[in-house]
Every structure is written in C-alpha cells, then in structure tokens.
Amino acid sequence: ANLPVPTIAAIDGTALGGGLELALACDIRVAASSAKMGLVETKLAIIPGAGGTQRLPRTIGVSLAKELIFSARIVDGEEAKSIGLISHVVEQNEAGDAAYRRALALAKEFLPQGPVAMRVAKLAINQGMEV
C-alpha cells in the first residue's frame, strides 16, 4: 500500500484470506467474473490479520464489510464489482488471464503521466483518506 507507484491487483482465480488482503493493499483491483474472493478467516475461528479488517470497510463500507467477514462469504467477480470491492470485472478468456490483461491495459494508460505527479497524487489520496 505504501509503494510510491500505482499498484493494480489482477484476480484471475481465487483470492481468499491473505490473497484478498494483498489485493486490498493495491490501489486498483481487476477481477475475472469467475474469480472468487473473500475474507474467510472466521471459518477458522480467527480474524483477518493482514489489514483486511481495516481495508475492506474503507473499500466497501463498514456494514457490508462486517457482513462479509462475519459470514466468511465468498463472492465472484460480478458481485465484487457490484459492492465496490473491485474496479473492473472482465469475462475470463481461454488463457485464464483476462484480469491480468485488463490490468496491463490500465497500467499502459498510466504510463504517459508524469511520474512525480503520480507519486504525489497517490500520497495525497492516501494521506487524505486518513484525515
């Protein structure tokens, strides 16, 4: 989350527990419609430990984050998009890398921008969210 450059998570398969927490630490998340995501630690009688209890509520709202964590529910890409967990949902392709390809296309949109402006914009957004 503190990298000075934009980060994009591409979820083409399963991101449960720590996998989703890693994706939540990224600036943007892209997933295939068939991808599976969830913070399922409560099934193991533990809680998400790598920032999930902080980042998920900031991303989708407190009430919905509690519901997903309390139930250990797994959502697919379509539902993840509808609740604001991911920014983009794409249909999976034969190669199984549709989310990766969309993430790469987004990264190419970012490339022409000024690197210092990108770094400072990310810092301003991140710090502003904590005020």
From TrEMBL:
Family matches, as Pfam families: ECH_1
UniProt organism field: Struthidea cinerea
Record-linked CDD domains: crotonase-like (cd06558)
Gene Ontology MF, one: enoyl-CoA hydratase activity
Segments traversing the membrane: none
Gene from which the chain derives: Auh
Annotated InterPro entries: ClpP/crotonase-like_dom_sf, Enoyl-CoA_hyd/isom_CS, Enoyl-CoA_hydra/iso
PANTHER family: ENOYL-COA HYDRATASE-RELATED (PTHR11941), METHYLGLUTACONYL-COA HYDRATASE, MITOCHONDRIAL (PTHR11941:SF12)
GO terms for biological process, alphabetical: fatty acid beta-oxidation
Gene3D superfamilies xref list: 2-enoyl-CoA Hydratase, Chain A, domain 1 (3.90.226.10)
UniProt GO cellular component terms: mitochondrion
Protein name as annotated: AUHM protein
Record family assignment: Belongs to the enoyl-CoA hydratase/isomerase family.
